[in-house]
Amino acid sequence: MSFNKFIISVLMISACFNSNAQEIVDKKNTVYFDFTALMTPPNRLSIGYIRNFGTNYFAGIELGHSIDKNNGRNNGYSKDYQLFAYRLQVGYNFNPEKRFQNYVSVDFQQIHHTETLQDDYFRSAELSTDENTVYFSYDEIEYKREKMTFNVNYGFFAHFNRAKTFGINPSVGLGLKVVDVTFSNPVNLNIDDNELKFWDFGSRYRKEGQVTTANANIQVKFFYKF
Questions:
Q1: Mean pLDDT, the chain, as a whole number?
Q2: SS (H, E, C) the chain
Q3: Which of 9, 29, 155, 201 is the most buried (most CB within 10 A)?
Q4: pTM
Q5: How confident is the model over 106-131, as a mean pLDDT?
């Protein structure tokens, strides 16, 4: 190969790398919509923003809010559903130059959820004098759930176009969650001694008190980069 051809080849390769680097640098901002939060009850509308730092690192924030006050609990009567959530995330993108980009991240999420429940029961956080579980039935009661999660996630950005401006971002994660549920202002509260409730593992709406357990995080997001 002649020297001139070698120089031309080097310049062409350099131009390609510069073009890819410029493309990565230019698209430092990402906005997204979390499809999973909208479809999972009690649902909410969640949107987020991600900012790239350098080539591989990124950080983001996500905000979620309930849409309809009547669109909360789906397995019983309720009203006045309100939910606000935020999520903070930092991560590392292994191959930002590709159309299919793998990453790992850690995130912290907090959820504040209130709702008025009707015609149901809950398991009290306090035991009876003989150390048995106590259930209460009610006509109406105020429900509040505070939840915090910490997750380690794996996900990928799958771009729909060569310019890498929009696509889909599935992710899965594992971590811990701390949930604190309280009930207040009951109407017609009574002790419910129905033994069939022994087999009822309950739901988030039927367990009073604070608990720390493992957490699974699954998200499917549609994004736009600019």
A1: 88
A2: CCHHHHHHHHHHHHHHHHHHHHHHHHCCEEEEEEHHHHHCCCCCEEEEEEEEECCCEEEEEEEEECCCCCCCCCCCEEEEEEEEEEEEEEEEECCCCCCEEEEEEEEEEEEEEEEEEEEEEEEEEEECCCCCEEEEEEEEEEEEEEEEEEEEEEEEEEECCCCCCEEEEEEEEEEEEEEEEEEEEEECCEECCCHHHHHCCCCCCCECEEEEEEEEEEEEEEEEEC
A3: 155
A4: 0.83
A5: 91
Q: Could you tell me the residue range of the domain that residue 69 belongs to?
A: 3-225
Cis omega (within 30 of 0) for bond into 186: no
| CA atoms of 221 and 46, how far apart (whole Å) | 10
What are the tokens at 58?
A: 């990124």
Interatomic CA distance for residues 187 and 167, integer angstroms: 49
* Domain CATH code at residue 19: 2.40.160.20
Q: What is the length of the chain?
A: 226
For residue 10, the SS3 value is helix
Percent of the chain exceeding pLDDT 70 equals: 85
- Give the β-pairing of 133-159 and 190-191: antiparallel
**What three-state secondary structure class fits 26?**
helix
